[in-house]
Amino acid sequence: MNDVVEKQVVELMQVSPLAEELAERFARAGHRLYLVGGSVRDALLGRRSGDLDFTTDARPDRVLKIVSGWGDAVWDVGIAFGTVGVTKKGMQLEITTFRADSYDRVGRNPEVTFGDSIEGDLLRRDFTVNAMAVDLASKTFIDPHDGLSALRERVLDTPATPQESFADDPLRMLRAARFAAQLDFAAAPRVVDAMTSMAEEIDRITAERVQAELSKLLLAADPRPGLELLVDTGLADRVLPEVAGMRLAIDEHHQHKDVYQHSLTVLAQAIDLESSHEPTSEPDLILRLAALLHDVGKPATREFQEGGGVSFHHHEVVGARMARKRLRALKFSKEIVDDVSQLVFLHLRFHGYGKGEWTDSAVRRYVTDAGPLLTRLHKLVRADCTTRNRRKAAVLQATYDDLEARIAALKAKEDLDRVRPDLNGEQIMALLGLKPGPDVGKAWKFLKELRLDRGPLDHDEAVAELKKWAAENGVGDA
Fold it and tell me: What cofactors are annotated for this protein (predicted)?
C-alpha cells in the first residue's frame, strides 16, 4: 500500500490496539481477521469511529469460541447472519463471517451463505468506499474495487453494477443518500441513474428500515446533499412525498425558488441554532424534522391572488396533519410524531402578533401551548426567518429577542411552565356542590382561561369569579 494509506492504517492500529490483540487470537486459532467497511473508510478519512467492524474466514460458532473469555461481553443476536458482537474496554466490535449471500429480489432479507474469501465478501458490499479491508496479521491493504480512488474523489459507486446492487438490496439507495449527507460525497452518475430508474424498488423495504436511514441522514452535519439526492432521483416521492411536493409551491415572499428550497434553508439554519442558541443541544431529530416539514401544508393551501400574490392560509394546520400522517407511516415513535406535528402547528404563532405587541396573556398562551417544546419552537421560528432583506431580518430577530425577554421576565414572577387554574377539581366541586362530571371540566377550563388571561389570582378572587361564571351558566348551586 502507498505511504499515505500505510500511515493512516498504522494510526488506526494505534488508536485501537484491541484490533491487533484480537487478530493475534484469531491467528493462533488458525484464522484470518480483517478490519473492514466503515472502520477502514473512516480511518482513511481521518474520522474517529467508536465501533470497529471485522470480517473473518472463521464460521460463527468458531468466532464465539475465539472471543469467549476475551471480551467483556459477547452477544450472538445476529449469529444467524454470521455476526458476533463483542464489547471490550468500552468499545463495541462486530465480527462477521465472510458472506456470499444470494437474494430473491422480492424482499430484502438474503439467503445467508458464508463465503471463503475476503474478495468475495467485499464484492457484496454496498459501495466501493466500504469495500476496503486491512489484513490485520500482515497489515496488508486490500482494495479490489479501487475504493481508495473513490474516497479521494469523494464519490459513491458500487462494487458490482448499481442495478445488481440495488436489486439485491434497495435499502442501499437510501444509504447512498445518507452517505452523501454524512460524508459529503457525490453519487456516481451511474448510481444516480440506477436510483432514478429503480426508485419504486424501495417499496420492498419496511417502513422501520426506511425510517432508520432517514433519521441517520437528517442527523448528519449537513443533510441537504442527501435530501436533494432523494428528491432528484424520485426516491423522495416514495418515502417523503410531502417534501418533494413542496417544489410546486412558490414562496409567498418570493425570496426562494420554491418552498422546497426555503425548507432546506430553514433546516440548515435550525441546525446552526442547535449549537448557537441557548440552551444548546446535540443534533436534534425532532427539531430537524419540524424544520424540514414546517411548510408541507403550503401546496394544499396555495391560493393565487389578484396582482400576482400567493397566500397559504392555515397551512400550519394542514401541515401539522400531513406531518403526523407521514411520520406515523414511517413508524416514528408517538413522542416524535406528536412533538413534530405540534411544532409545525405552532410555527406561525409568533407572526400573529405584528411587531411584538405581546400582552402578558399572549405570552402565557404561547408558553403554555408550546409546553416542553418551547426551546425548540424558539429555534424553529428563528430558523424560519429566511428573508434576504437584512433590515427586515434584523427586525424579526429583534422582535423575537423581545419575546424571549418577556417570557423570562414573566417566568421570574410566576410559574409559566405549569399554568393551572387557581382552584383544583375538588375545590370546584365543593364550592359549587357538584359531583364528578362534565360541569367540573367546564369550570376547570374557565378558570384555566382566566389564569392565562390575568395571571395568578388570590383565593377569594378566584372563588368570586368561579361563582359568577357558575351563576351565568346555570351550573351547580350558584
Answer: Mg(2+)
Per DSSP, the three-state class of 405 is helix
**Cell 411520520 maps to which residue?**
327
The C-alpha cell of 370 is what? 408550546
C-alpha grid cell for residue 235? 426516491
Q: Cα–Cα distance between 103 and 41 in angstroms, integer? A: 26
Pairing status of strand 133-135 against strand 140-142:
antiparallel
DSSP-derived 3-state class of residue 477: coil
The three cell numbers locating residue 192:
444516480
DSSP string, 374-424: HHHHHHHHHHT---S-HHHHHHHHHHHHHHHHHHHHHHHHS--TT---SS-
Residue 181 has pLDDT above 60, yes or no: yes
Give one DSSP letter per residue of 58-116, joined into a string: S-HHHHHHHHTTTSSEEE-TTGGGTEEEEEETTEEEEEEE-B--B--SSSS--B--B-S
Query: What are the residue ranges spanned by the domains of the chain?
Result: 1-152, 247-411, 423-471
Q: How does pLDDT run across 247-278, given as a tens digit for each residue?
A: 865 555 544 458 899 999 999 999 999 999 98
C-alpha cell at 350: 409568533
Q: What is the pLDDT of residues 222-245, one digit of tens each?
A: 999 999 999 999 999 999 999 999
CB–CB of 249/259 below 8 Å? yes
Q: What nine digits make up the cell of 26?
A: 484469531
Domains 1-152 and 247-411 share a fold: no
| Secondary-structure class of domain 1-152 per CATH | alpha beta
Compute the distance between CA of residue 295 and CA of residue 302 in angstroms, rounded to an integer.
11
Mean pLDDT across the chain: 88
Count of beta carbons in the 10 Å neighbourhood of residue 115:
19
DSSP 221: S
pLDDT 10s digits, 139-171: 888 999 999 999 999 999 999 999 999 999 999
247-411: CATH number = 1.10.3210
pTM recorded for the entire structure? 0.86
Kind of pairing, strands 83-88 and 73-75? antiparallel
Instruction: Give the integer Cα–Cα distance in Å for 423 and 169.
Output: 60
Q: Which residue has the higher pLDDT, 416 or 24?
A: 24
The closest of 302, 303, 297, 300 to 321, measured between CA atoms, is: 297
Q: What is the pLDDT of residues 295-318, one digit of tens each?
A: 999 988 887 766 666 667 789 899
Q: What pLDDT shows up at residue 1?
A: 45
Does residue 370 contact residue 364 with C-beta atoms inside 8 Å? no
